[in-house]
Amino acid sequence: KGKKGKGKKGKKEKDLTPDRTYESLFEELIQNEILIRPKYFPINNFVSEYSYLASQMRLNDIEPMPSIHDIKNLITQYCILPLGSQAVHENSPHVKSIVFAGPAGVGKRSLVDMVCTETGANLFNLSPSNIYNKYPNKKGLEMLLHMVVKVGRAMSPSVVWIGECDTVFVKKLPKGAPFDTRRMKKDMPKWLKLFKLEDRIMVIGTCRTPQNADMKPFTKSFEKHILIPKPDYATRFELWKHFVMIRLQTISQNLPNTAELVNID
Hints:
With 265 residues, the chain is an alpha/beta fold.
């Protein structure tokens, strides 16, 4: 005749910097190059074209590779709209973390800049190569993650970028690795639990080889996974037109004015 269990109460988040202002924390993160300036990359610069071949393949029950146009729509749905609007954020599924995976040169980092440009978000860089020599030991890492959440929450929207995020979750370090990339492996799932429903903060990871990561903690830390493929034929055609027009504009600007040409007879 069991006893009625008492409801578990969530642990209250502990403030590790109660005597510091947001301005001082903001300044410290800038000085340590944790808070960085994203590159200006509007969504109009992300050239893509709808894949009509893919739509025909789906009619025949064949699932094609995602096109760049599909990727653009997914990032708008999961990242740009919830981060850019508090109303959309509160009424859409809460996605705390997402990973962009794909080969080198497909524009994964540019997509992170695009999200920040379109939403006006702050950009925090927690890539392993950027934090390995900053805020040492476990206490230092705890303080760093606390500061990122506190500042990111107060000055939302905010994006936390983790480049080469697969190296954070590898089981064994490769031989000759200059430093341990697994510093955040155990703390990241606990850290993501601090994100509240009303917080417009998103963790975006980028990587080339997600298959090298330990899948259990990797999928636990990143809720959504988007494959960024190489451009298909339709998108390559649009890219060629885009760059040719830019080049023609540059040439036309360098040509002399016809009114200034000397008539030689």
